[in-house]
User: What shape does this take?
Amino acid sequence: MTILAEALLMLDNVTAGYGDAVVLNGVSLDIAEHGSLAVLGRNGVGKSTLMLTIMGFTQMRGGRVFWRGADISRQPPHWRAKSGIGWVAQEREIFPSLSVEENLTVAATAGEWTLEAIYRMFPRLRERRSNMGNQLSGGEQQMLAIARALMTNPSLLLLDEPFEGLAPVIVEELIGAVSQMLASRKLAIVLVEQHTDIALELTAGALVLERGAVMHRAPSAELLQDTATLERYVGLRVAAEH
Assistant: This one.
């Protein structure tokens, strides 16, 4: 694969997994500065492993990961985070014994995403700023997890099923927040999401994983109309009332 000068992140034929288990098989992708990519596929096909591999948590068995044109395949997770890759895991992983504001400020770095900017985007967090993490609802915890990642002022934000299991009203708020992030052109986003319609409506490009390999890639608007491919590799799943 030719390394594109404009690529913010690029995976070149990456094979990775855990211990002896290989989960990703020869995955290649790229995302440009301020770009957006949906990663689709059924459960267990390697979507979360892809995110963990970008962050450096899996064992690389082949291929390379590039960040701003530099090979970071051997760099540890904390280096990647400091270099501008933000990650919101499925498990949210907020600090339950810290207040909302402490959760936000503990990870803060200088940049456009300040505490005030976060509170403008997530008014609920301003209202709950003195509450402990374990006093928040599931939806509020997800807002906090995303907001905490933004406080690191990343150039790339990885979102692993951010809308899963949340009430429709919360999903709507989070969709609005992600839309604002992308419209601001302050960062790029890779979105893993089971709700196919949401993922494709938010992003510019998409790829479909099957058994750890990229089986299809297309502009999101095009794939949204390609029901045969979606039924074959994803299974059509839409969000209620979004």
